[in-house]
Write a structure and sequence with these properties.
The complex is a heterodimer. By secondary structure, chain A is an alpha+beta fold. Chain A is built from 10 helices and 23 strands. Chain B has a single domain, classed as Four Helix Bundle (Hemerythrin (Met), subunit A) (Up-down Bundle). In chain B, α1 packs antiparallel against α2. The radius of gyration of chain B is 16 Å and the shape is elongated. The chains are: A alpha+beta, B mainly alpha.
């Protein structure tokens, strides 16, 4: 594969790149899918075509794996060069996704052949059919090649349609924008949205706003109330349907907060989102990390003061999307230090070694509930129940988030995984070759005249060598003694000398390419 | 002398050359099956042209004679004979390649 540009590497390493479209809901399985059905070919020729076609595809798959093996080995040698590492990881990801596409495209009667199916190869009337059990050759899933992992996820795109823009014309001064939407893992799958567009309606009434999710016909799907959209910053709203919306607050007019929404109607802001169900394609081999779920928690409930004199407490530590990779927090223990100075408080976030990882100045903590978002991926809510005296509060927080797959990727282990996969492909190739030989032998027994047919002979090409080596059940029919002798001598030379390939395998790629082109043109004409 | 990277690169080159040879045979076989005389003649000519008698004169001679026979058979509208020759030769190369790889892997685990 050629050199990749930086933007290509970024595209390749995007967590949702190479994701596959998903139709079913999260966790939904059918009692019997088409993929596990037993299917059969109608006659011997169809069986043979299936086997030879599958063999050819297996060769493609094997060469794909060989390329991946080379890449993974070169990945092992990289020490600290993240650009090279990203490049190789991106290429591996692209190749493994291509691998799945090839596996998925080898189909018979609409069913993928290499998905652990049992095939019954019809041998024509009067012959017992052969049965062939193929392995599951996808890179993901159980009993498969274990080269990638797949998890159910979804991609959400926020956009504004023309009618959104028209509707928002009167309310653009609020400074409230729907800036992002993401999928929440592990939410109620029965409620999952479909692959289509949805409307988001923000009903702005200051610190008690509401956000509605509606379908295209305007029917309400879910409504979240009591959202504080006054002030400045980001607000995350979780919906039970498995969607988290991010709303940016950059008020242009401070006066908006002064509006009396008990008498005024709420200001409405609409936007659209596109929901796409996906199965992600990730190369990850850090099994040790799978035990700790993502999340943040307080090690103990810490509060400043008491209910009698007014209390300041911290609750609801949450994970939020980090704004950039560079300041993303790593998993571990953090200490949050709140210096309460009323409207001008400040908050420090330090890691276990005491290094400052987040700082917020001039935070107004006099309101009942304030959401503090450290851009590295952690947000907490500070609750003030009547506290007015200055003071300082220490809050320990445990923060767990799996690092991006690329950071924990072990090329050495992946090399071993690829080698194991190659063994499986070799087994499959051997099985196919054996089956092809069986079909050919049966063909020769049942209908020797077919051997002379050019079409059948061409389709039987893959196994001819095996047949010859195994004693030649179908002997030459047309070739004369001289040709037969020439072939025998050629065979002697090919097998007995070390110079055989040097004699014939001298075609340049250009020569072959021009021939392939000519051959394609002739087929078309 | 004993550079493993050099050996690896050489093996890769050799593999690619063999794959090209097998592909060339496949093209010829398919052309013969589909009655595409032009491509068949072109493929046979290419096979003949790329013979290297210096490597193994005896083999080169046999192969050249077989390609000539095949080309004549194609002209005489005997596709079955052409198929027989080409497929057998392709089969030999496939088998030889597999044997060699097996040997390679068994001595270099």
């Amino acid at each position: 594969m050629e050199r990749l540009t930086t933007s290509q590497i970024n595209d390749f390493n995007n967590p949702l790149a190479f994701a596959r479209e998903r139709e079913a809901r999260v966790g939904q399985t059918q009692s019997e899918t088409r993929e596990t059905q037993n299917f059969r070919t109608k006659d011997r020729e169809a069986s043979f075509r299936l086997v030879t076609g599958a063999t050819k595809r297996l060769d493609t798959l094997k060469s794909n794996l060989e390329t991946m093996l080379d890449l993974s080995r070169s990945g092992e040698r990289i020490r600290g060069d993240s650009f090279k590492r990203d490049t190789i990881y991106g290429k591996l990801r692209s190749l493994s996704a291509g691998f799945d596409q090839v596996v998925d495209s080898v189909r018979f009667d609409g069913n993928p052949i290499f998905s652990g199916n049992k095939l019954t190869l019809g041998m024509g009337a009067g012959s017992r059919p052969l049965s062939l059990e193929t392995s599951k050759l996808f890179t993901y899933g159980e009993d498969a090649l274990n080269l990638s992992t797949s998890s159910e996820t979804a991609e959400l795109t926020v956009f504004e349609t023309v009618d959104d823009v028209i509707l928002n014309q009167n309310s653009s001064s609020t400074g409230i924008t729907l800036s992002g939407a993401s999928y929440i893992e592990g939410s109620n799958s029965a409620l999952e949205l479909d692959n289509t567009n949805y409307k988001v309606k923000i009903l702005f009434t200051g610190n008690d706003s509401a956000v509605e999710l509606r379908d295209r016909t305007g029917a309400l799907i879910e409504r979240q109330e009591g959202i504080n959209l006054s002030g400045e910053g980001r607000e995350f709203i979780d919906f039970d349907v498995g969607v988290q919306l991010q709303i940016d607050k950059q008020p242009v007019l401070g006066a908006l907060d002064e509006l009396d929404f008990t008498t005024d109607d709420p200001i409405e802001i609409t936007s659209s989102i596109l929901y796409r169900r996906l199965d992600s394609h990730t190369l990850r081999n850090d099994d040790s990390q799978t035990d700790t779920p993502d999340g943040a928690s307080l090690l103990f409930e810490a509060s400043l003061g008491s209910a009698a004199v007014g209390q300041l407490s911290v609750s609801e530590p949450k994970l939020t999307p980090s704004t950039s990779d560079s300041n993303a927090l790593e998993s571990g223990f953090y200490n949050m230090n709140i210096e309460y100075r009323g409207e001008n408080s400040y908050i420090r976030l330090t890691d276990a070694l005491g290094r400052i990882r987040g700082f917020k100045f001039g935070v107004d903590l006099t309101t009942e509930s304030t959401s503090i978002d450290f851009d590295g991926g952690l947000s907490v809510t500070v609750t003030n129940s009547g506290r007015s005296a200055d003071g300082s509060l220490q809050v320990p927080i445990e923060y767990n988030r799996r690092p991006p797959a690329i950071e924990a990727f072990d090329f050495r282990q992946y090399t071993q995984q690829i080698e194991a996969a190659m063994v499986l492909i070799d087994d499959e190739l051997a099985q196919m070759a054996e089956t092809a030989a069986q079909i050919q032998a049966l063909n020769a027994q049942r209908n020797p005249a077919l051997q002379a047919n050019g079409m059948t002979a061409a389709s039987l090409s893959a196994s001819s060598s095996l047949n010859i080596l195994s004693g030649g059940k179908s002997g030459p029919i047309l070739i004369n003694a001289n040709t037969s002798k020439s072939l025998a001598q050629a065979a002697d030379q090919i097998f007995a000398t070390t110079t055989a390939f040097g004699t014939q395998a001298n075609q340049t790629p250009e020569q072959l390419a021009s021939l392939q082109l000519a051959s394609a043109v002739n087929i078309l004409s | 002398m004993n550079n493993p990277y050099h050996a690896q690169a050489q093996a890769a080159n050799r593999d690619a050359a063999i794959q090209r040879l097998l592909e060339l045979y496949s093209i010829a076989i398919e052309a013969n099956a589909s009655g595409d005389q032009e491509t068949l003649a072109h493929s046979l000519a290419l096979l003949k042209k790329t013979l290297n008698p210096e490597a193994n004169p005896a083999l080169a001679r046999e192969l050249a004679s077989l390609y000539t026979t095949a080309a004549q058979a194609a002209q005489n509208k005997q596709p079955a004979l052409v198929a027989e020759i080409l497929e057998r030769l392709r089969g030999f190369w496939v088998a030889r390649d597999r044997i060699e790889k097996k040997h390679f892997f068994s001595t270099n685990p």
